[in-house]
Amino acid sequence: MAFNPINWLLGFFSLDIGIDLGTANTLVYVKNKGIVINEPSWVAIDKRTREPLAVGQKAKDMMGRTAGNILAVRPVRDGVISEFNVTQEMLMYFIGQVHEQSMVPLPRPRVVIGIPAGVTEVEKRAVHDAAMSAGAREAFLLEEPVAAALGAGLPVSDVKGSMVVDIGGGTTEVAVMSLGGVVVARSLRVAGDEMDQDVIQYIRNKYNLLIGEGVAEQVKMKIGSAYPLPQEKTVEVRGRNLVTGLPESLEVSSIEIRDALSGSVQVIVDTIRDALDEVPPEVIADLMDTGICLAGGGALLQGLDERLADELNLRVWQAEDPLTCVARGTGVLLANFEALKHYTVSLDRGSTRHRA
Question: What is the pTM (predicted TM-score) of this model?
Fold first, then answer.
């Protein structure tokens, strides 16, 4: 990249920022400071003007409770941008928040954004352009499984192979890495959101009770599991009876919710197994020592590590603070940018640095 004196000057006044632009949550990492923003990826907009009225937690709290002229939306679906202008406004808001906290007058940061491994060139370009339009002076893309591996502290540059499974809100990312490169990768659009829908459909079909996404997510987090629990649990759910149209509450058990989630969990298990089928025998031998690292919010599903270990015959372990692995991984890259920039993704040639 040719020397740009304006960008060089702006570098003194702006911060380097890493963004985990997730379907469920957006996390912002600031170089030398850590994660400074962790908010839901929601924006409340005026239906008539399309102007944003609230971003993050405030917007999510409006879900299902808004007036007729206000719409609460998630501009990122299945790990990719579905509403470009709304995503741009959301990024602009978060970037502005970071610089307000730091008293920096010119928010023109270098930005690294995590993206799913299986996105198309058009989807990559949309993320890059949204970041640039939101005020970045440079934007770089980093595949989420690579970011999760860096954030989890896996020895991705070693000759010995390592494996990460990052289960987010919109996608499940699987990657086997060795010698600083990705040996095998899979990206699956079955993750936390799909599990929430599984809970909604199960309760609707079994009890004729309609519940919202927020309630389904809470049920999943409280009693959802992928493996029998030492002590099964129950939780109260509230919704609208589809027969009478009246409010109703009932108790559901962790056994029922495990049954509801079984389809999505099995798809994730099968995807990991398919990835392992393509791994060279030498790397499989390494994985028998290093195991599989679980990252992302989906890693917190109770018993998932036991289920995977039982079905895949490998040790499975949870990364420290799995929810923040991707964001922390962008921070690792920012802290060692010149050494790790080869991990960033080109908009046209795969895993090489994008030259903005």
Answer: 0.84
